[in-house]
Amino acid sequence: MSIRVERQDAVATVTLDRPRKHNALDLADARALTAVWRGLRTDRSVRAAVVTGAGGRAFCTGIDRAAVAEEGAVPQPHAPFAVEDPLLSIGPKSNDLWIPVVAAVEGMACGGAFYLLSEAEFLIATEESTFFDPHTSYGMVSAYESMAMAQRMPFGEVARMALMGAAERISGRRAYETGLVSELAPEGGALGAALRCARTLASYPPGAVQGTVRAVWAAKEAARNQAMAQAPPLIALGNLPPEQQAELFRERGRGRGGYGVTFRTR
């Protein structure tokens, strides 16, 4: 299994452990993350959590399309009003977990990684980290991802990230300046900084902490839920057919980058 969970000092550290795949998630990983968050709901020994990626090169790069293709395509509903997305339930809030979760980001965080990052209470990253959303470059609508990140970033920033696709990456410094990241740690230090925060949170009375987490989320939950209800038809109508998406990904694999795009960081 590519998901590791370690418990110490009332803190659970959840690590995505596929560094050779930039911590991309296959279907088993997605199911394992759901099980981890649901298991922590009843674990009284854990009062806070940290989520991170192994290897230092990436936090997470979303779904592993090659692995999913090997397992077989995810069946989709016949109507454009629902989408079967295997990453929709990989986050803690989607599993009704209300202990505080801190994300520690080193390296790349893109696409499906935002399902996790958008459900953490706050993010700690390094200047070397980069955030981007490649969906549009490969003929896919960025719906759930951009809707979730719009709750954490200024409108212009999330719109630019979602629309520029693979052509542009947001640096850790820029993410900090716009409020997506709450703290910049030195290279290799994001996990240590996140654990220090989590241990502090775990030392407080859990009812007060979890109640505060719930209160903060209540302030924006209605808008988020209303937006995400619009996602399935937008995806169904805007996505290229799967075979055309696959061809664009094959172009990237051959070094052509899809549409000949070379990314830049800002």
Automatic annotation (TrEMBL):
Gene3D superfamilies, A to Z: 2-enoyl-CoA Hydratase, Chain A, domain 1 (3.90.226.10)
A Pfam family it matches: ECH_1
Coiled-coil zones: none
Top-level taxon: Bacteria
InterPro entries noted in UniProt: ClpP/crotonase-like_dom_sf (IPR029045), Enoyl-CoA_hydra/iso (IPR001753)
Family: Belongs to the enoyl-CoA hydratase/isomerase family.
Entry protein name: Enoyl-CoA hydratase/isomerase family protein
Originating species: Streptomyces smyrnaeus
